[in-house]
Amino acid sequence: MKTALVCGAGGFIGSHLVKELKSQGFWVRGVDLKMPAFSETAADDFMVADLRDPYNCRSAVDRRFDEVYQLAADMGGAGYIFTGENDADIMHNSATINLNVLDACLRRNNKRIFYSSSACMYPAYNQEDPNRPVTQEDSAYPAAPDSEYGWEKLFSERLYLAFNRNYGMQCRVARYHNIFGPEGTWDGGKEKAPAALCRKVAQAENGGEIEIWGDGLQTRSFLYIDQCIKGTIMLTRSDFEGPVNIGSEEMVTINQLADMVMTIADKRQRIRNIPGPVGVRGRNSHNELIRERLGWAPDEPLEIGLRKTYTWIAGQVERARGRNQRAAA
Question: Which residues contact 98 (CB under 8 A, 6 or more apart)?
């Protein structure tokens, strides 16, 4: 039986990845600071452990796994990344985890490792025009990410690829573009735009009002979780080390995204644009390289995944409302 280690298995992407690997017949160990928030883990073995501690990393990587997936990181949405208040934690925590994981894998001769980077590492100067953002993989330099989160991702990309060159490892690096879907963070400040908008629309009455940070004309593309998992596994098992984008090429403004969610919810609400952290003006995945090297690229329309996500988040909102009502009674 093949074996896999998923670091960050208590998180959104990691928990979905564990389920898929189990469906393929793998024995899977998951490790994270916490268990998955919204469902039982599918992992055969789950370690609740802090990967910033090298001892915990060595305990998790106690054998040679067929595949290692490193998704553990300190991250969140714009409200967490772009305020500047969490920069030291973001850089220190994520870099420490990556250094520890690579060291532990090298000790046990684990070679096939996937690392989840982010489109946040692309230069801010190439993303000032919301209609024509530049995110080809070779546009990463001269480097100028828009956040310390992006700088740490860029450093870690180079770290994994250096281990390939110097130690004969087979690390694979993907740059994720705004992954969303059910069982992702939907409140609390670390949620991303699709989840935040689904929550706001679900909470507001028909004819009411929702708030959007900035003018809402900033553009993004969003990738549904199932397509992310497919691309991740394909890249890991390929002979291409990356870095490569894993994202959708369907670009929308944040205002348009809100309109899509309202249509799905069969509601019409006013948008009030307020000051807030927004990141770059435009970002969209460029998928020529992934098509060339993997013979595949994400192609599912945004609306399909958004429907599934809204249904799930609306259910969470109703459950939270019911708990609050019972507590107030």
Answer: 70, 115, 156, 159, 160
